[in-house]
Amino acid sequence: MKTPMLIMLLVVFTDLVGFGVVIPLLPFYGEHFGASPLTVTILLCTFSGCQLVAAPLWGRLSDRIGRRPIVLISTATSVAAYAWLASSDALWMLFATRALQGVSAGNISVAQAYIADITTPENRAKGMGLMGAALGLGFIVGPAIGGQLAGGDPNALTVALPAYAAAGFSALALVLAIVMLKESLPVERRAEARRHRPGRIAQIREALGRPDLRRLMVLFFTTTFAFAGMESTFALWALARFDWGPRQVGELFAMVGVVLVLIQGGLIGRLTKRFGEARMLRAGTITIGVGLALLAAALTPAVGIAACCLLSLGMGMAQPSTTSLISREASAIEQGGILGVNQSVGSLARMLGPPVAGIAFTLGGPSAPYVVGAALMLISAWLAGEVVRRHRRADVGALAL
Q: Is the CB of residue 92 less than 8 Å from the CB of residue 43?
């Protein structure tokens, strides 16, 4: 593995450990302040709403001034957000710190653009898979640490220690970036990007105006929407179904991270070379749909765990394949901007998915969000089939030439 990629993956991993530390804590802590299930899901999607606004701005700015400065600024913002969370003693503070965390998390598109800068198109899916593996590793370590620090009793929670731990991990990521991360974007490409200056709305309109990009981004939206609805209600579902607390939820999220790492870090590169990114995308969307349907029907912990394994397997196949295909549709001077638009699409899905899942949970019971998600994945599978057919036609055309 090239040194620049290794350093970026270390930065992403360390920052995501901090992010993951608070994941099993927030739903229970929201309920501690009297929040309803719907309010809890809105708390979680506040992060995505702010990420939606920030991601294209970070991406476009990174095209013009470089990836490294944006990584430094956004990671420093994470440190401040988690430090504030440690002293939160009211529900509004949880919302405020979650918003600041969302602003800082807009840098994921910048990290993806960094990977695109240093990989060839043929190795792009492998690079995005490795980044997904770094995210997955963060999800293994972070929730496990957060669950242990918060404790297993949902009625006796502590927020300060996990939040300070999250701030510490983000501070470590900041130090790594300052000391070791080199700029990936050549000066001439930054200058060219400054000359090519579409506004934010114009860039979004331009990206969605390309049929192939639009199809991929809609696909990214639907899969992320369904998965975000599952993530945001899972702790409440597990509490209602199995009487699980933060520790058990954190351990299961860690298991989900293990599966994601195995797929994205070890298998996705070989699988895409053999079957192609489009086919891997279709297989992933179908697997997510099956996992959601199984989760809706789960009456025992074993079935719930099996369903979560299928969900993480499907996301491990679908997400890096989609990101790689989108990156390959973008020119060299717009990688950050296009990936930022896609990150906003994902953020919109993560913003809308939780409240829809919360409403479904409130009106239809604990399994209702997963029934809705499984139905939505039928649309995703159809869209993925269109991507496969488009790539098959392109291959036939290339052979004819």
A: no
* Residue in 354, 346, 233, 225 with CA at minimum distance from that of residue 296: 233
| Domain CATH code at residue 187 | 1.20.1250.20
pTM for this model (two decimals):
0.69
Q: Reduced to 3 DSSP states, what percent helix, strand and coil does the chain have, rounded to the nearest 5? A: 85, 0, 15
SS3 185: coil
CA gap 295, 233 in Å, rounded:
12
The two structure tokens encoding residue 119: 């990989």
Residue 101 to residues 83, 166, 225, 344, Cα–Cα distance (Å): 11, 11, 20, 15
Q: How many CB atoms lie within 10 A of CB 179?
A: 8
Using alpha carbons only, give the angle 321, 51, 379 rounded to the nearest 5 degrees. Answer: 45
Task: With a cut of 80, say whether residue 211 has pLDDT above it.
Answer: yes
**pLDDT 10s digits, 275-333:** 888 888 899 999 999 999 999 988 888 898 899 889 988 888 888 888 888 888 777 67
**CB distance 42 to 360 below 8 Å:** no
Q: In whole angstroms, what is the distance from residue 313 CA to residue 280 CA?
A: 11
What pLDDT is attached to residue 285? 92
Task: Please give the average per-residue pLDDT across 236-242, as a whole number.
Answer: 85
Q: How far apart are the first and last CA of the chain?
A: 36
Give the closest residue to 66 by CA, choosing from 205, 150, 191.
Answer: 191
What is the rounded CA–CA span in Å between residue 61 and residue 196? 12
Whole domain around residue 362: which residue ranges? 3-400
pLDDT at residue 86 in the model? 82
Q: What is the DSSP string of 252-274?
A: HHHHHHHHHHIIIIIIHHHHHHH
**What's the structural domain count of the chain?**
1
- Mean pLDDT on 14-33: 73
Q: 317, 298, 337, 294: which is closest to 380 by C-alpha?
A: 317
Provide the pLDDT for residue 155.
Answer: 60
Residues with Cβ within 8 Å of 176's Cβ and at least 6 positions away in sequence, in order, are 7, 10, 11, 14
For 38-43, what is the mean pLDDT? 76
